């Protein structure tokens, strides 16, 4: 696959996620996909756990959508910087337990690294500003500057 094809696939993953088309996301994923989510200290393996990762966010914020702000790619790696926005209308699951819906509109800054192999997403590493997200939903005091 070309670098440009990998970028197009990464864009398609985020577009499908934003539109709640999880089967379309999973169709682009390798059966043995690995998702590393540093903010919550968890690693997910396989398509079912990848779905669980996605639904963890979409259950809390069903209208969550992704807008890319920067994309850098080389060979089989695509690095995407984006802003995800949505409304906290469902419980947000955290390692410390669920955060009750706040009704607050949230903005989450994220960087993901996608690794592609033979047209399939093999590995995704997710870095996000979880502290800001928790402050926006009222689970933590707002940091200075927010």
Largest sheet: 6 strands, mixed
Strand content: 35-45%
Please compute the radius of gyration using only Cα atoms.
15 Å
Q: What structural class do helix, strand and pairing data support?
A: alpha+beta
Low-pLDDT stretches are: none
CA-based shape: globular
* CATH architecture tag: Roll
| Helix run count | 4
What is the helix fraction of residues, given as a range?
25-40%
Order of strands, main sheet, comes to 2-1-8-7-4-3
Quick check: average pLDDT?
95
H/E series: HHEEHEEEEEEH
CATH fold description: Nuclear Transport Factor 2, Chain: A
First-last Cα distance: 41 Å
CATH class: Alpha Beta
Extended strand count: 8
Number of domains: 1
Give an overview of the whole structure.
The protein has one domain: Roll (Nuclear Transport Factor 2, Chain: A), CATH 3.10.450. A six-stranded mixed sheet has the order 2-1-8-7-4-3. The protein has four helices and eight strands. The relative contact order is 0.20. Strand 3 (65-74) and strand 4 (77-87) form a beta hairpin. The chain has 146 residues and is an alpha+beta fold.
Question: Main attributes?
Answer:
Nuclear Transport Factor 2, Chain: A; 8 strands; 4 helices; alpha+beta; 6-stranded mixed sheet; 146 residues; two-stranded antiparallel sheet
